[in-house]
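Suppose you are handed a protein chain with no further information: no name, no annotation, nothing but its sequence. What can you learn? This example shows the usual starting point.
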Amino acid sequence: MDNVVGIRFKPAGKIYDFSCGSFVLKTGDHVIVETENGLGFGVVATPPAPRENRETSHPLKKVFRPATENDFNQIMKNSEIENKAYEFCRQCIKELSLEMNLFRTESNFEASKITFFFTADGRVDFRKLVKLLVKEFRTKIEMRQVGIRNQAKMCGGVGRCGRELCCSAFMTKFDPVSIRMAKKQGLSLNPTKISGVCGRLMCCLTFENDTYEKKSPQNKQKE
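A reasonable first move is to predict its three-dimensional structure. Written in structure tokens, the prediction is:
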């Protein structure tokens, strides 16, 4: 029976199932895995378990091998590439007068693609920018526009509670948040007090919402 292991590529990122084959792995081990975009560098988030215990039936990509010292060196080289790409792209954005906020660059493990993450109020024509980036780095370039909540998750930070942002610490997805949740919990509706660093309603409003829903007068009457 094939064993399945859960691999995470980013802190608080989604966990993906891989076939671990004959490798003996434990939580926290770094591994090189096969992905649709080539080899990837990840960490074991959930230990190996028989496939019959996992809710998955589709073919799985495989763990290529445990990470070696050379792989960690490659990650360091990629970091240097990302820093250089970030500074060069910012300079190009300024020269082209593009209305976009670049906040992160990421290189895949094999350094065959660099992804540039940015936010913007609307659509951005970045065709000239991509040409300059391709000419400079001679690799595949991807421009990815994301929302402000995703920016907060990727950049991290500290919330008004004094703790690390929930989205960057442990949340793997964003649930819908509404002002109604704040009303039910008796919180001040002052936007500055119920908004996170991203400027949107705080994600933690959803954490206890179910409890407040169950304790609401309407639900008590139904009981």
